[in-house]
């Protein structure tokens, strides 16, 4: 099968070899989590939620009393793949990806600032179309930022591959399952350091370099987008604070007192003016 | 887990007794609902329903299969629910299995009827392609993304919306002369058949807190419940299924009272849902 059209140079989904799929990031999608985000790369869509920093739930898991414990769970929805298959929870692939995400995020979180506490990162894949690993890391970064957890830098991730003697950025499911190499890179965007590097299949040394360069370029583009999303979110929050100061810090009881006060006023009004409804 | 102080618990109970709940609602008032269809492009039908901070996604996938020997004239429908750990940290690992199983069974009871398929909300005989040979298997998956109480009602509403969004591909069957041969099935890519979802019920859960009962409880309110009755009611005001949860016993007369209230509330809920479905389909 031709993954890159030899005449036009376009890929199966109409992209150029060094073109990324459309990105979409949204912060605060899970109301009750401390931080949450949705991240889309084309048809791949994941949700990440962060709970913490909070007290260590199972004391035995606490490794060091100097640093926060970071935990991660990756889960795929039953309907996320093309053909529906019910997988048992905690299969080896999920366990491996959970571990990869945990290690990558741990490298960026300032764990020494939150000793004796625990941070949980949960990622849920809603749609899988290649590059779920990368999308999960990007979503986790956004969610951690939303939760206000101190981080060294923004971690972003992107995949790249090599098919039909062309390096391709951000593989979709068809390209991913073509059997070629799949290089997933995660970087600390500002410090310009690689924190995650994975590749399957074989690739000549010099080609690997160009493919990895391409993936790093992709990571940087994602970092730029994530910064925009976070800036936009911060502006929105600031705007909200100006508009309704009582709701930002308001405990739900405070709001209720307000509702109840209005209710009592309406009752008094009805009693005074004898309105029936 | 919901951590509440004594004062907060008292406040919630007191508010319910005075018909003014912690978020300003009356006892029989639902939270604001938002409905979106077509959220999972890979599925035949899908929907996202938000009730306050509760968010669920339902997807319907249709696959060709073989009807069971006992019911050669009926298709198969199965419902699975999964609670994502994004909704609460306690759903991590195997922590969600109990709740997922409870919700799945409750939904199956309300939507699929008995084992024989009698009384099912979905007309199972409409899923048949060739009698005894080929039928559609419907897989309904629910996913709880964010949980703030009343998951069952939200899931049932999401499934109802997802089913009305579902298009089953039209199939052409070429029957060969030999009867025991596998029939050839040609699945159309661009012609879809819509489902008749008018008889799919909604579920209304009445949660009893103190002497009174409320609809659409938040998780704070659910933590104060003594028992809850989930009633599924269809458009013709018929009861399709009933589940009681919670340890405390209920007087039979109270249950009858609750059912009649649930019937009344469900009709309002269904009309709100119908207008939301129409709006969501227009927006798509």
What does this structure look like?
- The complex is a heterodimer of chains A (277) and B (284).
- Helix content of chain A is 36%, strand content 26%.
- Chain A has 277 residues and is of the alpha+beta class.
- Chain A has 2 domains: 221 residues, Ribosomal Protein S5, domain 2; 28 residues.
- Chain A has a 5-stranded mixed sheet. Chain A has a 4-stranded antiparallel sheet with strand order 7-6-8-9, sandwiched between helices.
- In chain A, a hairpin with a 2-residue loop joins β2 and β3.
- Chain A is globular.
- The model of chain A has no long low-confidence stretch (mean pLDDT 87).
- In chain B, strands 1, 2, 3, 4, 5 and 6 form a 6-stranded mixed sheet that branches.
- Chain B is α+β, with helices and mostly antiparallel strands and 284 residues long.
- Chain B has a single domain, classed as Ribosomal Protein S5, domain 2 (2-Layer Sandwich).
- Chain B is built from 5 helices and 12 strands.
- Helix content of chain B is 28%, strand content 33%.
- The interface between A and B is large, with 38 and 40 residues.
């Amino acid at each position: 099968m031709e993954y890159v059209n030899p005449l036009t140079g376009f890929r199966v989904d109409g992209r150029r070899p060094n073109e990324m799929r459309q990105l979409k990031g949204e912060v605060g999608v899970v109301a009750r989590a401390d931080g949450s985000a949705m991240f889309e790369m084309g048809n791949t869509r994941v949700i990440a939620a962060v709970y913490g920093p909070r007290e260590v739930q199972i004391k035995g898991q606490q490794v060091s009393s100097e640093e926060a414990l970071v935990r991660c769970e990756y889960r795929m929805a039953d309907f996320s793949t093309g053909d529906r298959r019910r997988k048992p929870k905690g299969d080896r692939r999920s366990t491996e990806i959970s571990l990869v995400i945990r290690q990558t995020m741990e490298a960026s979180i300032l764990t020494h600032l939150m000793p004796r506490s625990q941070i949980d990162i949960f990622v849920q894949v809603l749609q899988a179309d290649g590059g779920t690993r990368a999308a999960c890391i990007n979503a986790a970064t956004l969610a951690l930022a939303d939760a206000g957890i101190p981080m060294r830098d923004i971690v972003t991730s992107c995949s790249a591959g090599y098919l039909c003697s062309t390096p391709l950025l951000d593989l979709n499911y068809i390209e991913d399952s073509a059997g070629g190499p799949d290089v997933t890179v995660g970087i600390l965007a500002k410090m310009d350091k690689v924190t995650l590097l994975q590749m399957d299949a074989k690739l000549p040394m010099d080609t690997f370099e160009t493919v990895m360069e391409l993936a790093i370029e992709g990571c940087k583009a994602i970092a730029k987008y994530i910064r925009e999303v976070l800036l936009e979110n911060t502006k929105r929050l600031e705007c909200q604070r100006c508009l309704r100061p009582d709701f930002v810090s308001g405990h739900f009881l405070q709001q209720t007192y307000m509702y109840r006060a209005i209710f009592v006023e309406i009752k008094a009004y009805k009693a005074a003016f004898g309105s029936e409804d | 887990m919901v951590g509440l102080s004594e004062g907060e618990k008292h406040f919630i109970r007191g508010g319910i007794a005075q018909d003014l709940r912690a978020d300003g609602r009356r006892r029989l008032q639902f939270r604001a609902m938002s409905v979106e269809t077509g959220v999972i492009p890979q599925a035949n039908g899908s929907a996202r329903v938000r009730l306050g901070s509760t968010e669920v996604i339902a997807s319907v996938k249709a696959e060709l299969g073989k009807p069971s020997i006992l019911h050669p004239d009926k298709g198969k429908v199965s419902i699975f629910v999964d609670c994502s750990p994004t909704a609460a940290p306690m759903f991590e690992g195997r922590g969600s299995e109990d709740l997922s199983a409870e919700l799945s069974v409750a939904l199956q009871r309300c939507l699929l009827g008995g084992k024989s398929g009698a009384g099912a909300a979905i007309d199972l005989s409409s899923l048949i392609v060739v009698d005894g040979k080929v039928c559609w298997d419907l897989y309904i998956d629910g996913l709880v993304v964010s949980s703030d109480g009343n998951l069952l009602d939200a899931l049932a509403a999401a499934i109802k919306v997802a089913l009305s969004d579902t298009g089953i591909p039209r199939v052409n069957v070429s029957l060969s002369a030999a009867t025991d041969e596998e029939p050839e099935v040609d699945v159309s890519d661009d012609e879809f058949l819509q489902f008749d979802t008018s008889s799919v019920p909604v579920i209304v859960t009445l949660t009893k807190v103190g002497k009174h009962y409320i609809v659409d409880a938040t998780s704070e309110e659910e933590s104060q419940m003594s028992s809850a009755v989930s009633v599924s009611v269809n458009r013709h005001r018929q009861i399709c299924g009933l589940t009681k949860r919670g340890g405390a016993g209920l007087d039979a007369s109270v249950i009858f009272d609750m059912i009649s209230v649930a019937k009344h509330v469900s009709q309002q809920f269904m009309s709100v849902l119908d207008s939301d479905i129409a709006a969501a389909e227009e927006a798509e």
